[in-house]
C-alpha cells in the first residue's frame, strides 16, 4: 500500500473521518438485527445469519479501531490488516454462536463477552504490526490518503455485508412466506378436522384447533399458554398425570370440565413431535359424550324395568348380593319379600294393556312410598316383569316384623286405584324369606322367597307365606312331576279313557267323553286333579290338549256313525289361533257333527271377543259346542245369547245333592228349563246313585245322563266293545 501521506488534514478531511466513523458504528446495530434473525431461524439459515452478523459486527469494531490508531502503514500492512479483520469477525462469530445457545444463562453471556474482548485485543495487536508507533504527529496519523484507504475498506465491507444481508433477507423472507403459507394450510387442515387437536409441552398448551375450542367451550386465546389441567375434571387428573409421565400410546378416556360446570367425556391419543424445533406432544381428542350417554342408557335399560324405572331382576340380584355381603360382615340379617298382584291379568284383559301398564306404574309408586317410609334408602324395590315385584329390607329378620311389613304392603295395594276414569281394585300375595337362615346367597334366598310365593298363590284368598323347608320339598316333587309330564306329552305316553253318555232313558248310548289319564310305573295312576292344574301352570296344557283332541278324534273316526266324542278344551286352547282351523278333522276323517267341544265359563270371561270369534269359527265348521260346569262360575244369561252353544252340562256338584238338597234340585230344574226354552240340550253329569237317576228322569227335563252309575271311564278297546253290544241290542230289539 505504500506510506500514508504526512500532509495535514483540513475541515473537509474531518468530514470524511466522521463519515467513516458513522459507517463503522452503523455496522454494529446491523449486526444485532442479523443476530436476532438468526435466533428466529434454524439449521443452515441460522448459520448464514450468524455469519452475516459476525462479519458486520467484526468489521465495525475493526474499522473503529483503525480510525483510533490511524498512522503510516508499513510494507507488511495488508496481511496484518486482513488478519486483524479475520480475528474480529471470528471472535464475533464465536460469541454470537455461543449466545444463540445460551437460553439466557448468564455464564454463556459472560463467556461470549470474554470471547469478543479477546478478539478485540488480538485484533489490536495484529493491526499494530501494520504501522510504526507512535506516529510522528497527529496530522500524520490522520493523513488523508491513509484515511481514504480505511474508509474504502470499511465501505467495501459494509457494501458486502449489506449485499449479503439483502440476499439472506430475500431468501429468508421467501422462506418465511412459504412457511407462513404452509402453516396456514396446516391450520386450515387442522381446523377442518372433526377431532380436537392440541400441541402441548409438559402440559402447557402451545396450539389448538377449532374443534378443540368447541369441545372445551373456550376460545383459542384462552387455551394458548394455559395448563391442560385447567379444563380437565378433577376425577381425571391422576390419569392425565400418569399419561404425561409415561407417554403411553394407548387411547384413554377422561372428563372435560366446561365453564358452566357441566362435563363432557372424551378419549385422547397422543404422540411426541417437534414443535418450534423442540420436543412437544400432539394429542387428538374426540368427544364421546353421546356414546357414553347412549351406553349409559343401554346399561340403564339393561338393568332397569322400562315401564316403571325400577331395578330389574339382574340389577336387583346385584343389590341383594351387596346387602347380603354387608350383612355377613356385620352379622346383621335381611328379609326378602316376593310380591304378586292378584287379578292383574283379568284387569289387563278387561280394560286393555294401556290401562294395565298405568296400573303397574301406580303400583310401583305406591310400593316405593311404603318402602321409603319403613326402610328409607336402605330398602330396595324391583320389578321382575309382569305383575311380580321384589323388596329387600336390610336388618329385618323377625317373622312378626316381616308380617307387619307385608300387611302394610297388602293394605296399601288394597286401596282402589283410580286410573283413566276406572276404579281398579287389586290385592297381593307375598312370599317371605330371611337371610341367612333361608339362604346365604342371593340366588338361594330368591329361590326360598319364590317358593313361599308359589304356595301363597295357591291359596284361595290373598295371603302371605313365610318360607319353610317343607315347601321346598313339595315344590321339588311338583317340579319332578312337571318334568315327567313334559316327557309324557312329548312321547305321547298318556292314555285316553272314554266315559259313556246315555240318553235320558239311561239305556241308549249316544257317545263318549274323552278323559286323559296318566300312569307311571313308579307312581301308578296320577289323578287328573293333580296333573291338569300342573299342566295349566307350566304351559303344558296346549300340547296336552292337542294330544287329547287328536287321539280322541282318531279313535271316534273308527266308530260307527251316530256316536259322538266330547273333548274338554282349556281356556288357553280356546285362545290359540290354530284351534279354529280344526285341521285335526281333516287329518282323522271325523265328521264335524260327531265332535263336541266342551268349554267352561272361564273362557267367556277372559278375552271375551277373541273367544267368541274362535267359537263362531268352530260352529261354522259344524262342530257342536257345550258349556261345561254351568252354574259354578260367573254364570250369566248374556253368555247363552252371545255364544253359539248347543248344549249345557249341569255340574256334578248340583247333581250329587239332588236327593237331599231341595235347593240343588231347584237349581237343576231351573237350568234345564232355561236350556229347553233356548232350544239347548242338557246333560246331567256325575250321576252315581239310583235316587239321583230317578229324580232326573221324573223332575228334570234333561236330555242326556252321564255318571258312574251308567258307566265308568274305559279304554278305547272297551268303548268299541260297548258300541258293538249297543248296536247288537238295537238289532235284536228290532
List the helices and strands and how they pair.
Layout: H1 11-39, H2 43-68, H3 77-100, H4 106-128, H5 138-141, H6 144-192, E1 196-201, E2 204-208, H7 210-216, H8 220-223, H9 237-246, E3 252-257, E4 263-275, E5 278-287, H10 289-303, H11 313-330, E6 334-342, H12 344-351, H13 353-375, E7 380-385, E8 388-394, H14 399-414, E9 417-419, E10 422-424, E11 427-435, H15 442-457, E12 464-466, H16 469-490, E13 495-503, E14 509-520, E15 524-526, H17 528-538, H18 541-556, E16 564-568, H19 571-575, H20 583-588, E17 595-599, H21 601-605, H22 608-621, E18 624-630, H23 637-642, E19 647-650, H24 652-655, H25 662-677, E20 681-685, H26 690-699, E21 704-706, H27 716-733
Parallel strand pairs: 11-12, 14-16, 16-17, 17-18, 18-19, 19-20, 20-21
Antiparallel strand pairs: 1-2, 1-5, 3-4, 4-5, 6-8, 6-11, 7-8, 9-10, 13-14, 13-21, 14-15
Helix pairs in contact: 1-2, 1-6, 2-3, 2-4, 2-6, 3-4, 12-13, 13-14, 16-17
Amino acid at each position: 500500500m505504500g506510506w500514508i501521506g504526512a500532509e495535514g488534514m483540513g475541515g473537509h478531511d474531518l468530514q470524511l473521518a466522521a463519515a467513516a466513523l458513522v459507517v463503522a458504528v452503523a455496522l454494529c446495530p446491523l449486526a444485532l438485527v442479523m443476530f436476532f434473525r438468526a435466533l428466529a431461524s434454524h439449521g443452515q439459515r441460522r448459520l448464514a445469519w450468524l455469519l452475516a452478523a459476525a462479519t458486520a459486527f467484526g468489521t465495525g469494531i475493526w474499522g473503529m479501531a483503525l480510525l483510533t490508531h490511524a498512522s503510516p502503514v508499513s510494507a507488511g500492512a495488508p496481511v496484518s490488516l486482513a488478519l486483524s479483520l479475520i480475528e474480529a469477525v471470528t471472535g464475533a462469530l464465536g460469541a454470537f454462536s455461543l449466545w444463540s445457545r445460551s437460553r439466557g444463562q448468564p455464564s454463556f453471556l459472560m463467556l461470549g463477552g470474554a470471547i469478543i474482548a479477546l478478539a478485540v485485543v488480538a485484533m489490536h495487536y495484529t493491526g499494530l504490526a501494520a504501522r510504526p508507533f507512535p506516529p510522528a504527529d497527529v496530522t500524520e496519523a490522520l493523513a488523508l490518503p491513509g484515511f481514504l484507504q480505511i474508509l474504502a475498506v470499511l465501505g467495501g465491507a459494509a457494501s458486502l455485508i449489506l449485499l449479503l444481508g439483502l440476499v439472506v433477507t430475500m431468501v429468508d423472507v421467501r422462506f418465511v412466506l412459504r412457511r407462513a403459507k404452509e402453516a396456514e394450510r396446516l391450520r386450515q387442515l387442522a381446523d377442518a378436522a372433526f377431532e380436537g387437536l392440541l400441541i402441548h409441552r409438559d402440559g402447557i398448551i402451545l396450539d389448538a384447533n377449532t374443534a378443540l375450542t368447541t369441545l372445551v367451550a373456550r376460545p383459542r386465546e384462552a387455551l394458548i399458554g394455559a395448563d391442560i389441567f385447567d379444563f380437565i375434571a378433577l376425577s381425571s387428573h391422576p390419569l392425565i398425570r400418569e399419561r404425561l409421565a409415561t407417554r403411553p400410546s394407548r387411547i384413554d378416556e377422561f372428563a372435560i370440565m366446561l365453564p358452566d360446570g357441566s362435563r363432557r367425556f372424551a378419549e385422547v391419543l397422543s404422540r411426541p413431535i417437534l414443535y418450534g424445533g423442540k420436543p412437544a406432544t400432539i394429542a387428538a381428542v374426540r368427544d364421546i359424550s353421546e356414546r357414553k350417554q347412549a351406553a349409559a342408557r343401554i346399561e340403564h335399560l339393561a338393568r332397569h324395568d322400562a315401564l316403571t324405572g325400577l331395578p330389574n331382576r339382574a340389577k336387583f340380584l346385584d343389590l341383594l348380593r351387596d346387602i347380603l355381603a354387608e350383612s355377613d360382615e356385620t352379622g346383621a340379617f335381611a328379609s326378602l319379600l316376593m310380591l304378586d298382584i292378584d287379578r292383574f291379568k283379568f284387569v289387563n284383559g278387561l280394560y286393555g294393556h294401556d290401562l294395565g301398564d298405568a296400573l303397574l306404574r301406580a303400583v310401583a309408586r305406591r310400593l316405593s312410598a311404603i318402602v321409603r317410609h319403613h326402610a328409607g334408602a336402605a330398602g330396595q324395590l324391583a320389578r321382575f316383569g309382569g305383575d311380580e315385584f321384589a323388596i329387600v329390607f336390610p336388618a329385618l329378620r323377625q317373622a312378626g316384623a316381616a308380617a307387619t311389613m307385608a300387611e302394610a304392603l297388602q293394605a296399601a295395594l288394597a286401596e282402589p286405584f283410580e286410573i283413566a276414569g276406572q276404579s281398579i281394585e287389586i290385592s297381593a300375595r307375598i312370599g317371605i324369606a330371611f337371610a341367612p337362615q333361608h339362604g346365604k346367597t342371593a340366588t338361594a334366598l330368591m329361590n326360598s322367597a319364590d317358593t313361599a310365593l308359589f304356595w301363597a298363590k295357591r291359596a284361595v284368598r290373598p295371603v302371605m307365606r313365610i318360607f319353610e323347608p317343607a315347601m321346598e320339598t313339595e315344590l321339588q316333587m311338583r317340579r319332578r312331576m312337571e318334568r315327567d309330564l313334559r316327557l309324557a306329552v312329548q312321547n305321547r305316553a298318556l292314555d285316553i279313557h272314554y266315559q259313556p253318555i246315555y240318553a235320558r232313558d239311561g239305556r241308549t248310548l249316544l257317545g263318549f267323553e274323552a278323559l286323559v289319564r296318566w300312569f307311571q310305573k313308579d307312581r301308578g295312576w296320577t289323578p287328573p286333579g293333580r296333573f291338569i292344574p300342573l299342566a295349566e301352570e307350566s304351559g303344558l296344557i296346549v300340547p296336552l290338549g292337542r294330544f287329547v283332541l287328536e287321539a280322541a278324534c282318531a279313535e271316534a273316526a273308527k266308530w260307527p256313525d251316530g256316536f259322538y266324542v266330547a273333548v274338554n278344551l282349556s281356556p288357553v286352547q280356546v285362545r290359540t289361533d290354530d284351534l279354529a282351523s280344526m285341521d285335526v278333522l281333516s287329518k282323522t276323517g271325523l265328521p264335524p257333527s260327531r265332535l263336541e267341544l266342551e268349554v267352561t265359563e272361564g273362557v267367556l270371561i277372559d278375552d271375551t271377543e277373541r273367544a267368541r270369534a274362535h267359537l263362531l269359527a268352530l260352529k261354522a265348521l259344524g262342530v257342536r259346542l257345550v258349556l261345561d260346569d254351568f252354574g259354578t262360575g260367573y254364570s250369566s244369561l248374556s253368555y247363552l245369547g252371545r255364544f253359539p252353544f248347543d248344549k249345557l252340562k249341569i255340574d256334578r256338584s248340583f247333581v250329587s245333592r239332588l236327593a237331599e238338597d231341595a235347593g240343588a234340585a231347584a237349581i237343576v230344574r231351573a237350568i234345564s228349563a232355561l236350556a229347553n226354552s233356548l232350544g239347548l240340550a242338557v246333560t246331567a253329569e256325575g250321576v252315581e246313585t239310583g235316587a239321583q237317576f230317578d229324580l232326573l228322569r221324573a223332575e228334570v227335563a234333561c236330555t242326556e245322563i252321564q255318571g258312574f252309575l251308567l258307566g265308568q271311564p274305559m279304554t278305547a278297546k272297551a268303548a268299541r266293545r260297548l258300541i258293538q253290544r249297543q248296536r247288537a241290542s238295537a238289532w235284536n230289539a228290532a
